Amino acid sequence: MRTMKTVALAGAALAFLAWGCEPSAPEARVAQGDLQRSFRVALLTPGPVSDAGWNAMAFRGLQAIQKDLGATVNNQETSETKIRDAMRSYAQEGYDLVFGHGFEYNEPAVEVAKDFPKTVFVSSSGGKTAPNAGAFRFALEEGFYVAGYVSGMMTKTGKVAMIGGPDVPSIRSTFKAFRAGAERAKPGVQVIETFTGKDADVAAAKQATLAAIGQGADFVVHQANAAAQGVFDACKEKGVAAFGANLDQNDNASGVVLGSAVINAEPAFLGLAKSVKEGTYQGGIEVYGMKQGAIDFVWNPNLASKVPAMVQEMVERLKGDITSGKLSVPMDQF
Question: pTM of the predicted model, to two decimals?
């Protein structure tokens, strides 16, 4: 049976170590009376929070809530048929807010929310809502559009690739944006798209990447979550450039990440948690993009010399146009 934990528990401590932070000492179990008076937030992720990407980004948001709001927090890796049970379990324990980090959590959240009106359920992506359930969406498409533009500007083969894990609407939307950016820079560019169907299969991601490179791709972006290392390893093996996603992955040991399309999650997580704590939350969908400081494209400073000055200048101009609203990046509605 799962027990109540703060982020200082062993599982979360491993995540701190993965980010180079000193883990705090395990805390004593909080008395039930204290728990009843505390603000409680849970996070469900499809993969490990040590993945240096999508799940780690959400865990940082949870850490911000714990630090800034003094919340009691808990996280677990939960997917597919176990999602509803995990949500119900947290609600039965009296949690105030349950995050489901991904499109796949939206429908279960709205369904479970009907039985637990005192708990707010929010997913990262999705289009369904209820009075106490909704979604916030990071417009990562904007960062992917910029990455695609870079690949189109710099490709020598005229072929670039996108490697995804699960084939879900949110990932497809970012890939469409990447494709649009590449085509803006180089009309007629060939964009190879592959889904492994798996979230954490490093070997499958590597094989898919090697296959794309074998077809001529010389730039590769991913939405592979915990399997991203397979993409980077394949790129290193073949001398091909890659892009990081969700978090800044420029320091990956492979040395092939030219830049990253990143999500700055903490402000969005904090803002939502504050509204729940203050009792002002209303079910709906919020979008956070470059304009809100939630999305960016960041260069790898160690590889800056490989990027022509003209490309860097064009990218800054492109980011400015997106932030100001002058340029609207393709984004699927779902």
Answer: 0.81
